Amino acid sequence: MSATKEDLVDLIASTPPRRTARFGPGRLQLVLLVAALAVPLLPVPGFWITLGNYIGLYAIVALGLVLLTGVGGLTSFGQAAFVGLGAYSSAYLSTAAGMSPWLGLPAGWVVSGLAATVIGAVTVRLSGHYLPLATIAWALSLYYLFGNLEFLGKFDGLSGVPPLQFGSQELGSPRAMYVVIWLCLAACLVLLMNLLNSRPGRAIRSLSKGRTMPEAMGIDTAKYKLLVFVLAALMASLSGWLYAHLQRSVSATPFGLNMGIEYLFMAVVGGIGHVWGALLGAALLTILKSQLQHVLPSLLGSNGNYEMLVFGVLIVVLLQRARQGLWPWIADRWTRVQTPDPAVMPPAATPAGFSKVPRRAKPEPGSVILSVDQVRKQFGGLVAINDMKFEVHAAEIIGLIGPNGAGKSTMFNLITGVLPVSSGEIRFAGGRIDGLDARRIVQRGVGRTFQHVHLIPHLSVLENVAMGAHLRGTAGPIAAALRFDREEEARLLHLAAEQVRRVGLGEVMHTPAGNLALGQQRILEIARALCTDPVLLLLDEPAAGLRLQEKNALAELLRALQREGMAVLLVEHDMDFVMGLADRLVVMEFGRKIAEGLPADIQRDEAVLAAYLGGIE
Ligand SMILES: Nc1ncnc2c1ncn2[C@@H]1O[C@H](COP(=O)(O)OP(=O)(O)OP(=O)(O)O)[C@@H](O)[C@H]1O
């Protein structure tokens, strides 16, 4: 293949999927899937049935890659090794131990699940190019392990693997296996789409944005990274189990690094962030490869692996023309005539008997909610925060102002647990929070927005906002995949929709967040923070990029929140906005507090006027 592994890593890193917001099974896709399941009933030649079997097997692995790489942002070249673990487990147990092939599936899942947990615990912490390099390392290790173990038949492998049996019916023929393989594929597709349209699905989708934003929503990024790694391995293992009982023999060759790269190509060509892309990519590349293997030798008059050359060139051209893969290109045209996906629609009205997500009780107005005491933060030799001390009371709006580089964002990061303090104490609602991680702090009731917006641009406004509701639900991946979470999901989406309307973005609820103006994206972040049910809201430059009318609406919203008992600490450079809104101001310069008081007094404070070099008129 002419594209290198590095090209692929760069491509995946640089092209976020454009339309992954909608994972719902469209009618056309379902019709095609049912039609595909009916193929063995038709007089289709055996060659195409075999090809269909391999498309199904590859698509299951590529689906795992959609979850792991396309949605979770973790690139892996090593999925073929997990296919091998599933295949060898069942082949060994059914030949050497005479166990039923059906038991080989859970056995393979146990082996692959354990291996993925151990390998994932070490590798998913790696970032950048180190992660794919690590996947290459363990893919090679497992390949050579398969080929060198005596009891697995070394590189000759294991033969005489029995076929699957259904009652007295042997599923030994390719036609019978076709039905089993495509039923497994259909189940994987449905379960994965259910998972992605859910609370854990949103957590998985947030992983591609790094740690800071998801953790500020209470999402345990390490746990979810490991989860997607294990789930992708289990899907690969399922494919391996099917392969072993279709092929009836197993050897190391199909589980090497080359196949790992091909799986990734299938997912990328189909559309790495799209579940249906996995099927499309697997089908396209498998058919193309098999056709080229037939056509090229007769055209060129000699045998050889010419198809790989053509294959590589075609893939490079395709990726240059449609970098996000083929599925989004097709879906873009198809979805223009479709209505929004009900899976991500909030209920239009509150259904009867619908219990809302419970809200946290607000503290007594005037009681101290946040206390920052002698807090210091050093970055090497730079003292970014120097013995800062201030308090925020319940139902109070405090402006934290100061010239550029004064340390305001660093102060936010210390309060929200993104950065550890060097010394001093931060207390929230009476308990110490310095030393707690970001997830525990948001759990206690501190919501935040960011100076540079952290959104998932291709997800709708509603779905982005619903990420903030993560801690207000409990559904796990199994409940979500089986749709046992629907009641909770409806409640969370309802809550998110309420916040979207409350901040005035109701009309763009289903618009991809990336299509909004920057000012609206900041407002979206406020809605997301409100979903965490905060007692204290930290807003980093919320008015930046807003027009006058929008600023007035924002000020009105913040006053309404204050009336409900919420405290707001805001960093803002727009002096008119902050002077008109804040009850008190804390002014910083070079990491120190230089003034604190009522806006009218601060405007006359000489130290403040000097800090701003010419005043804050
Ligand atoms: N992670 C970091 N490593 C090293 N220095 C940092 C880090 N984060 C912030 N700083 C430094 O700390 C100081 C305070 O930065 P900070 O971003 O908190 O200021 P700010 O008041 O928010 O500025 P602005 O209004 O421009 O956003 C700056 O000198 C900045 O360069």
From TrEMBL:
Gene3D superfamilies, per database record: P-loop containing nucleotide triphosphate hydrolases
Chief location bin: membrane
Record keywords, A-Z: ATP-binding, Cell membrane, Membrane, Nucleotide-binding, Transmembrane, Transmembrane helix, Transport
GO CC terms, sorted: plasma membrane
Listed SUPFAM superfamilies: P-loop containing nucleoside triphosphate hydrolases
Membrane topology term: Multi-pass membrane protein
UniProt protein name: Uncharacterized protein
Species of the source: Piscinibacter gummiphilus
